Amino acid sequence: MRRTAVAADQERAAPIVSLSGTRLSYPSAEGEVAVLNGIDLTITPGEIVALTGPSGSGKSSLIAVIGGLERPTGGQTQVLGMDMGSIGERERTHLRRRQIGVVFQSYHLVPAMTAVENVALPLMLAGVANARDRARSMLQRVGLGHRLTHRPSALSGGEQQRVAVARALIAEPSLVLADEPTGNLDQKTGGSVVATMFDLARHAGSAMLLVTHDEALAFQCDRVFAIDEGRVAVKHG
Question: Which domain covers residue 221, as residue numbers?
């Protein structure tokens, strides 16, 4: 696994993510259905952490809680100094727009927008004046300078995911959440996309939580956690 020269500094820094006994459950006719059963997890600045586990184990739910898309129903969930269990929807939205980048398996690009427009969108929503110029520069960095005006339907799967990665990293967020980013790609294309994502995150100093089924990809990260039945355990790191 990757070891950085700043590992000691990371350990001393205030964590980007600090979960203690985090729970998530949903009501049903038969009673509460537990999805996360007391998650303990810490991610420090600049650290890349992998999360593995079988389908239905709670990986995507954990991403949703950390990203403020779901409100935890128990425990302590601190993300970038914010208590995700108590802050309102407006504060969670502001946090996502300003400090969290998200990469999904299915790209989630806006079909009617060009590559430049998709990448510029987070900056435009934040009121950044030179959003399009920065988006063009970012697309150059991910090897898509020749695809600036193409819409998602005109791009390959790998190209669409590169656009999604560029969009997630354009604002140099403190935290990147990547949910199976190579799940729809072949091994070679997926490896190239991940290498690009890692390079951009390291350049920005972003912490990253990467959900993946790919063990080889997981072991490129600083630490690896496994999740099963809503609980996590350290695998390596």
Answer: 7-236
Residue 114 lies in a domain: yes
Tell me how many domains the chain contains. Answer: 1
* pLDDT digit string, tens, across residues 16-25: 999 999 999 9
With a cut of 70, which residues of the chain have pLDDT below it? Answer: 1-12, 236-237
Task: State the CATH number of the domain containing residue 94.
Answer: 3.40.50.300
* Closest listed residue to residue 165, CA positions, set 105, 218, 225, 113: 105
pLDDT on residue 3 = 46
Q: What was the pLDDT predicted at 6?
A: 47
Q: Give domain status of residue 177, yes or no.
A: yes
Q: Which residues contact 212 (CB under 8 A, 6 or more apart)?
A: 50, 51, 52, 178, 180, 181, 182, 218
Smallest CA-to-CA distance from 41 within 56, 60, 69, 62 is with 62
Q: Which residues pair with 227 in a beta bridge?
A: 232
